[in-house]
Specification:
The protein is α/β, with parallel strands linked by helices and about 230 residues long. The chain has a single domain, classed as Rossmann fold (3-Layer(aba) Sandwich), CATH 3.40.50.620. It is built from eight helices and six strands. It has a six-stranded mixed sheet with strand order 3-2-1-4-6-5. Strand 1, helix 3 and strand 2 form a beta-alpha-beta unit. Helix 3 packs across helix 8.
Length: about 230
């Protein structure tokens, strides 16, 4: 670990465990001022809540999303609409491999044959490169989303990307997220109205078929994570 100790971050996580998402964000923005970035996929409602809260506190924090080249048209349109409404310019983080080059190296439609490898190439490696200059990043993940996220602390050391990870909405649930969106008229991806509870790349996302918020991701595979939020 670099500038942070695991013991210190664990202590902070305990101290902030009962804090509101806004209080957690204030702490993170003060602690990592000038070296913190926020992720927003523009595909999930949590990211929109996080974005709305963050911009009320600090409009100077960079906001990024992973542009795999395979997002839904509705997602790209949503990004443009949100950018105009909040007057921001989200950073599109792209993989160094074009889809054409990926196909030539790994074969056509890699996501169908080896979705883990495709996510590693188009998401994880791209994000790892992008995050290198920063000390901390802010994520909108929640404990109720998947079993693997059930113990998510509000502050942690991200071993995968080698920096601090802030999860202000870790203790929120789906109902609270949507209540916030409705009460504050926060824009959300229109595909949610068509039965998509979790959105990723077009060929790897289908309408949800169970109560599991991520049941529509990678249909036909046991995969539930792209690798960005795994230890």
């Amino acid at each position: 670990m670099n500038a942070e100790s695991s013991e210190e971050l664990q202590s902070v996580a305990v101290e902030l465990a009962a804090a509101s998402s806004t209080e957690i964000l204030r702490w993170a923005l003060a602690r990592y001022s000038g070296s913190i970035v926020a992720a927003c996929s523009f595909g999930g409602p949590s990211g929109m809540v996080l974005l709305d809260q963050l911009l009320e506190l600090d409009r100077s924090v960079p906001v990024f999303y992973l542009d795999t080249g395979l997002l839904h048209e509705e997602t790209y349109a949503h990004i443009q609409a949100v950018s105009a409404r909040y007057e921001i310019a989200p950073i599109a983080v792209q993989a160094p491999l074009t889809l054409e080059r990926q196909a030539s190296l790994y074969g056509e439609r890699l996501w169908e044959r080896d979705p883990d490898r495709c996510c590693e190439l188009r998401k994880v490696e791209a994000q790892r490169t992008f995050l290198r200059p920063y000390r901390a990043w802010i994520s909108g993940i929640r404990r109720d989303q998947t079993a693997s996220r059930a113990q998510t602390p509000v502050v942690e050391w991200d071993r995968r990307f080698d920096l601090v990870k802030i999860n202000p909405l870790a203790h929120w649930d789906e109902r609270t997220i949507w209540s916030y969106i409705v009460e504050r008229n926060v824009p959300y991806n229109p595909l949610h109205d068509d039965g998509f509870s979790s959105l990723g790349c077009l060929p790897c996302t289908a309408p949800s078929i169970t109560g599991d918020a991520r049941s529509g991701r990678w249909p036909g595979h046991s995969k539930t994570e792209c690798g960005l939020h795994q230890a």
